[in-house]
């Protein structure tokens, strides 16, 4: 079993830990490890395998290329080259799959080799394999999930320990949870890419991540957390998608979840994926969504699957793109914060526009839980309030059940 590894960062070192810990079960030979600066590894256990030259990796006789360098380029070119040379590929690269999954799946199929990516979604949680294999006897029509460890860690620490957003982001980076550029975490891109990978596999149509409604957590402050607590909720960055006939609807956004809900129990770097299948009903997968050894465990499982000739069908990536609808088109509850409000005018307008509402805070800020027939209705009302200059700033948080 001969593998070459591209990248020796968080996930690369996690994979090597897992390979070493399982030496007595599987003899996986690391032939080559590509790094940026090999001087750092002079005294390293695998020092003689470390190289800065991709040609040295491709010169070895590899069964599998494990791509853990991240980013789109040159990772894409290396994966493509491996597949075209009939070398199986395991990757943890969600950015790559979300962007080029269609092209790579086709190249893998044409060359009759495997492209596996369990570690790209949900860190250590086995979810790609259950979705593509164990749940084959189901049509899956919806899913909701917490898919980013960094943001869940930040929101948990803000809620539990009253720590500031910036301090916790630093801690998440030190723990190896965050992306090289944490903007992908905090602005929701990482979660949207993962949701698109799961949705593509579940709905058997290509779902493109940029088509989801997308909102990150960088504007969430301690007041949002306090209002959430006041109404018995937590704030979570949630991804949700639904297949309705020929359209998918979906979002990644911070939402309020009830203290008693399943999602509110998933804290810190943990992730959860809840799938709804017509035979199995609701099924959930929970575990560590970021961090070196959990993610290394997922990469390892793909490597072993290839050696054992277990093959997953990823043809969904080659299917046509499906249209994605962004707004909540049914009954909803939304918590709205008005800063420097003209309270009477706002309340009169709200009274006219929506089904019902409840005032949560009426001091310096006006905070209201609004019940409406759709998010369109609320957005229209907020446009009117803005146009009339009734407040300096508005923010809103959807509550999901
Ligand atoms: N930055 C990612 C996260 C790493 O925080 O979930 C795992 O994909």
What would your notes on this structure say?
With 401 residues, the chain is α/β, with parallel strands linked by helices. The protein folds into three domains: 2-120, Rossmann fold, CATH 3.40.50; 137-288 and 321-325, Dihydrodipicolinate Reductase, domain 2, CATH 3.30.360.10; 332-399, Ribosomal protein S10 (Alpha-Beta Plaits, 2-Layer Sandwich), CATH 3.30.70.600. It is 36% helix and 26% strand. The protein has 13 helices and 17 strands. The protein has helices spanning 10-21, 54-59, 75-84, 94-110, 128-134, 149-161, 165-174, 183-186, 189-203, 222-230, 292-307, 343-353, 375-387; strands spanning 2-6, 29-34, 50-51, 64-67, 88-91, 115-116, 140-146, 213-214, 233-244, 247-258, 270-277, 281-288, 323-325, 332-339, 356-362, 365-372, 393-400. The strands form two sheets. Strands 7, 8, 9, 10, 11, 12, 13, 14, 15, 16 and 17 form an eleven-stranded mixed β-sheet that branches. Strands 3-2-1-4-5-6 form a six-stranded parallel β-sheet, with helices on both faces. Helix 1 (10-21) packs across helix 11, helix 3 packs parallel to helix 4 (94-110) and helix 6 (149-161) packs across helix 7. It is elongated, with a radius of gyration of 23 Å. It starts with a strand and ends with a strand. L-homoserine binds at residues 123, 148-150, 177-179, 185, 190, 289-290.
